[in-house]
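Postdoc handover notes: sequence design on the structure in folder B. Input tokens:
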């Protein structure tokens, strides 16, 4: 989500007025903005896409909630000390959060462990451990349209039910310690969105946000003009942002069947028409596959439901492709090779009415390779939604000079094509770019003690140092392009050794090629 102050001022058209007011007080607005803690509640593209969706939906006037976990410690801060990466805790709530409002009246219980009872009057999940989900609401304002949506984040709280016998047998201390263990669910964000970690705490987090959210959605639905009958529940749309909330599918089935006493077929029809799935990655190591043993222990009823979903799914596939046992193995929700695991991406596809990638090439790969079997069966499910961005945050805030130049002659970015040969506009844009480069040169000298020529060509990546972010590959690409366009060849082996050495010593890397042979690395 980033920082809220400037984004809110821009969306409410208050930026100039606030700037002037702060200036009159002898203060600096940029300094004030820098004091705000970054709400690092996501760990990469997943989190940023969700934030951009929230901004877009508010700006388009779509009634929507964004649900997540109120992590006490968000994405870690990265530093490089003596050539080694050091992660520092992101204690973003140390001074509180002025943008949020606790809503204890909407607190919801979330159940774990226990066992399942099958009785003539229905199925019950009993003897569970209960953790309370306390919601905190943050406003998400649309762009100059007087519309505000809500981001609701859940914080884990242990039920405070200490009995007198606990004092008598000395169990009070352990009861308090167990309370802290329960609240660990919302303590820390797992930092990787490109690698699956099959930890029990992570599965608890995923079910915690799903269970609390679905209770909240159903409460609001029943209070609306469409409730309490579930005939109109398809008015609700639940978008699964990757597989992390995949448990929404068996959880919604559990609520509809066990609590609302609907039949399997009715519950399944509602679930599929309600849920849609956004896939973010095709990397095998990033796809979630939860061990059945862990599932059985933590969520026994959901395992039963998932097995039944899989049984009915495989019956359908078997009827479409008689005797094709290899296809059944590939498309099963349960992977039988080695340790039994549940493939959460397969669960999302089977339990959703729409599946999309986040770029056209990504969506094509999904259809052609990773989920080809599923595409062959249900091609109508597969779509593409190219990642958009929040233009206010990424243009107005990051590059106000450029925003001011291009905003005046056009209302849509595609209108820029009319000005492709407009000398005056091109000069204005070049002037803004040069001013930005000069500001960056000053900043670099102040922070890294590196002096650069602002007339050089800049190639910039603003990312944390990580092997899959490919900073080294980008450096090599710069030199490749340079070698193609000059008569001076820089040896790639020598260069790669030099860049690697630089990456080992400095968290911010600057590589400049200017003139013909001048190279500087830090």
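Designed sequence:
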């Amino acid at each position: 989500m980033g920082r809220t102050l400037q984004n809110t001022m821009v969306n409410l058209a208050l930026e100039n007025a606030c700037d002037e007011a702060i200036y009159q007080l002898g203060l600096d607005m940029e300094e004030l903005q820098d004091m705000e803690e970054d709400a690092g509640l996501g760990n990469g593209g997943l989190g940023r896409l969700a934030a951009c969706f929230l901004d877009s939906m508010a700006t388009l006037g779509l009634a929507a909630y964004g649900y997540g976990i109120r992590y006490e410690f968000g994405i870690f801060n990265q530093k490089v000390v003596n050539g080694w990466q050091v992660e520092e805790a992101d204690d973003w709530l140390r001074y509180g959060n002025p943008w949020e409002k606790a809503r204890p009246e909407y607190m919801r219980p979330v159940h774990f462990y226990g066992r399942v009872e099958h009785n003539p009057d229905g199925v019950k999940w009993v003897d569970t451990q209960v953790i309370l989900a306390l919601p905190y609401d943050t406003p998400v304002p649309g762009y100059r349209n007087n519309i505000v949506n809500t981001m609701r984040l859940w914080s884990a709280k242990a039920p405070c039910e200490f009995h007198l016998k606990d004092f008598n047998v000395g169990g009070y201390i352990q009861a308090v310690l167990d309370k802290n263990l329960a609240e660990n669910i919302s303590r820390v964000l797992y930092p990787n969105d490109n690698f699956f970690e099959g930890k029990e705490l992570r599965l608890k987090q995923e079910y915690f946000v799903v269970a609390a959210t679905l209770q909240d959605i159903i409460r609001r639905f029943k209070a609306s003009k469409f409730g309490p009958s579930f005939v109109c529940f398809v008015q609700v749309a639940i978008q699964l942002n990757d597989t992390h909330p995949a448990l929404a599918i068996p959880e919604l089935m559990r609520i509809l069947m066990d609590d609302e006493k609907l039949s399997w077929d009715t519950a399944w029809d509602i679930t599929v028409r309600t849920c849609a799935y956004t896939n973010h990655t095709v990397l095998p190591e990033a796809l979630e596959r939860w061990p059945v043993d862990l599932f059985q222990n933590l969520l026994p009823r959901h395992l039963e439901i998932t097995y039944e979903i899989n049984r009915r799914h495989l019956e359908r596939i078997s009827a479409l492709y008689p005797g094709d046992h290899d296809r059944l193995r590939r498309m099963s929700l349960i992977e039988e090779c080695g340790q039994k695991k549940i493939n959460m991406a397969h669960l999302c596809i089977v339990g959703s009415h729409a599946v999309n990638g986040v770029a056209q090439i990504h969506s094509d790969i999904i259809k052609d390779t990773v989920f080809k079997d599923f595409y062959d069966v249900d091609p109508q499910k597969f779509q593409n939604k190219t990642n958009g961005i929040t233009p206010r945050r990424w243009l107005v805030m990051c590059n106000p000079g450029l925003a001011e130049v291009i905003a005046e002659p056009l209302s849509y970015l595609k209108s820029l094509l009319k000005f492709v040969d407009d000398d005056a506009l091109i000069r204005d844009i070049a002037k803004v770019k040069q001013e930005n480069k000069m500001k960056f040169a000053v900043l670099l000298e102040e922070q890294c003690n590196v002096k650069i020529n602002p007339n050089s060509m800049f190639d910039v990546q603003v990312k944390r140092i990580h092997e899959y972010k490919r900073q080294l590959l980008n450096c090599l690409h710069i030199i490749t392009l340079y070698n193609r366009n000059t008569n001076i060849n820089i040896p790639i082996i020598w260069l790669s050794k030099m860049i690697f050495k630089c990456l080992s010593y400095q968290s911010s890397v600057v590589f400049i090629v200017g003139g013909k042979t001048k190279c500087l690395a830090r």
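Context for whoever picks this up: Residues 37-384 form a domain with the Rossmann fold fold (CATH 3.40.50.2000). Don't rerun without checking with the PI first.
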